[in-house]
Amino acid sequence: SADLLPLDGLKKLGSSKDTQPHNILQRRLMETNLSKLRSGRVPWASKTNKLNQAKSEGLKKSEEDDMILVSCQCAGKDVKALVDTGCLYNLISSACVDRLGLKELVKSHKHEGEKLSLPRHLKVVGQIEHLVITLGSLRLDCPAAVVDDNEKNLSLGLQTLRSLKCIINLDKHRLIMGKTDKEEIPFVETVSLNEDK
Q1: SUPFAM superfamilies from the entry (predicted)?
Q2: CATH homologous superfamily of domain 69-188?
């Protein structure tokens, strides 16, 4: 009710909307908020910035932790392959091709880079039609696009994952292949993609 409000400075209430009790309260609240803003003291701004900074650092860290790598063999050497559901094709970096000694298998790629929709703006520099990969007890003979990249990595694309009827089990940290005779490949602990040994 109006008689409970401290109406300092107001001589009469009248029937104007500006002099109604709820409008008076709103105006006073706005005046105090404006005076706080003008004085430059916004106590919640520094907390919000710290929170946003912590969130962005956490996202960067979780992106690295969220990569799914499995151990496989290619050209007789152990390789960590990235399970990449974001790309249709198998990819192998030019650095990995060099390290595995597969240069003689690389065929030139005739301007088909425009047709391939690749993540991360990767440039296709060649193609290996028959890349032999041993994943668990399964031996794969699959094509792979060679990308101009300094990272020593290999990635299994969605096309291969579908053909193998793969299930990615994030609870058990396993890549499960096959529908009837299932084989489980454990994920490799992710440290860095550059650490292929």
Answers
A1: Acid proteases
A2: Acid Proteases (2.40.70.10)
DSSP string over the chain? -GGGS--TT-----S-GGGSHHHHHHHHHHHHHHHHHHTT--HHHHHHHHHHHHHHHHHHHHHHHT--EEEEEETTEEEEEEE-TT-SS-EEEHHHHHHHT-GGG-B---SGGGTS--GGG--EEEEEEEEEEEETTEEEEEEEEEE--SS--EEE-HHHHHHTT-EEETTTTEEEE-SSS-EEEEEEPPS-TT---
pTM for this entry: 0.62
CB atoms within 10 A of CB 75: 15
Reported as a single tens digit per residue, the pLDDT across 172-189 is: 999 999 888 889 999 997
CA distance 183 to 175: 8
Give the list of residues 6+ apart from residue 139 with CB closer than 8 angstroms, or none. 132, 133
> Could you identify the residue written with the tokens 């990819």?
91
Whether residue 192 contacts residue 80, with contact meaning beta carbons closer than 8 Å, is answered with no
